[in-house]
Design goal:
Elements: H1 5-23, E1 32-38, H2 41-46, H3 49-72, E2 78-84, H4 95-101, E3 106-109, H5 119-126, E4 130-133, H6 152-166, E5 171-175, E6 181-185, E7 191-194, E8 205-206, E9 211-214, E10 222-227, E11 239-244, E12 247-252, H7 255-265, H8 274-277, E13 280-286, H9 297-300, E14 306-312, E15 326-332, E16 335-338, E17 341-345, E18 348-349
Parallel strand pairs: 1-2, 1-3, 3-4, 4-8
Antiparallel strand pairs: 5-6, 5-16, 6-10, 7-9, 9-13, 10-11, 11-12, 13-14, 14-15, 16-17, 17-18
Helix pairs in contact: 1-3, 4-5
Length: about 350
């Protein structure tokens, strides 16, 4: 039976209130917007029933966040705004999303498709709106011991130290025992600390949070990425992506992975939007000790002892590619070298922070 708002609230109330108190430090006069996306007729017709179910449960959870937030913070004018799902991470939502965001002081974007790398989100954060982008968020993340229940002050300290270390790094090399071997340059690119303590600055923060990140220089990435079994929602076996001169050029692996990822990236095409979607866009380092789930990208990329490689849009991270898509591949237990100096060995930090 589909859960009711009361059922969901009973399980998540403490985590929701903690989010507003700890992650947002919500003030009495701030206006709050809770956003969610709902499946369109097209998505209803082409997605598997379980995927539609997950999206509807996520929308219900967003409504629950609104209800719990309104009761806990009655002076903050907590509003709820559902909008048609885009079907792709990073694709621009309907214009009313931008309009509603600009009316808020704080925005909780609890969606199925990410709005992080969009003009709507960027316009909001540029205007001072504090945005938590939460694509793929699940109810369990609010539970005690979940990724949202982590010590975010400790995460902030560690993430900021790694961000500061990245400031002086030029060359990054990543390898794993399963065959990942990737190198790229990050010299001169802005470095970010996604701490989960959401202040007014020109970048959205994911929740759950916990990563230090930057955008590799376009054209500098070469090698391959091995996506291990279970570390992507479509990876029911090991998959491999080849990278040449900054772009994903080949996809191999299980049929479902090749089909679903290939439909979005189309390595054989040199036309847009596919070329830009294949751009190596992000390098991130996970710092959240409570993050555990490998097949949910939102949580997996925050797991301590992992790094992730994003592809597609890097424009809002200081890059030059304004693609209509952004997604990530998470690499567990990597060995990472900065300018010839060992930083992480098989997922364990060896550099002094």
């Amino acid at each position: 039976m589909f859960p009711t708002i009361e059922d969901v609230a009973e399980r998540t109330r403490r985590g929701i209130v903690r989010m507003f108190k700890v992650n947002f430090s919500l003030a009495g006069a701030e206006k709050v917007l809770v956003l969610t996306d709902v499946p369109t007729v097209d998505l209803w017709s082409r997605l598997e029933p379980n995927e539609i179910g997950q999206q509807m449960q996520r929308a219900l959870l967003a409504r629950c966040v609104k209800e719990v937030g309104a009761k806990a913070y009655p002076k903050n004018n907590v509003r709820f705004f559902p909008f048609p799902a885009t079907g792709l991470n990073g694709t621009e939502p309907v214009a009313t999303v931008r309009e509603e965001l600009l009316k808020a002081d704080v925005a909780v974007a609890l969606t199925s498709y990410s709005i992080t790398h969009t003009k709507a989100r960027n316009a909001a954060t540029s205007a001072g709106v504090r945005v938590a982008s939460m694509p793929g968020f699940t109810e369990e993340m609010f539970y005690e011991g979940g990724a949202m229940a982590a010590d975010y002050l400790a995460i902030a300290r560690k993430t900021t130290r790694i961000r500061d270390l990245l400031e002086s790094v030029g060359r990054v090399e990543i390898s794993t025992r399963t065959g990942t071997s990737l190198s790229f340059d990050i010299n001169g690119r802005p470095k970010f600390a996604e701490t989960g303590l959401i202040e007014k600055y020109n970048k959205a923060c994911n929740l759950p949070a916990g990563e230090a990140a930057c955008s590799p220089l376009e054209g500098s990435a070469n090698g391959n990425i091995v996506v291990e079994k279970g570390w992507h929602k479509s990876a029911d076996g090991e998959a491999r992506l080849e990278v040449s001169d900054g772009f994903i050029t080949k996809i191999e692996g299980p049929e479902r992975f090749v089909r679903e990822v290939g439909d979005i990236l189309r390595p054989e095409s040199r036309e847009e939007p596919f070329q830009s979607r294949r751009n190596i866009a992000e390098f991130g380092i996970g710092t959240n000790p409570n993050a555990k789930r490998p097949d949910n990208t939102l949580e997996a990329e925050k797991i301590e002892g992992t790094v992730h490689i994003g592809h597609g849009n890097n424009y809002f991270m200081g890059g030059r590619v304004n693609a209509d898509y952004h997604s990530d591949f998470v690499i567990p237990s990597p060995t990472v070298v900065f300018d010839g100096k060992l930083f992480m060995e098989r997922g364990k930090l060896v550099s002094s922070l």
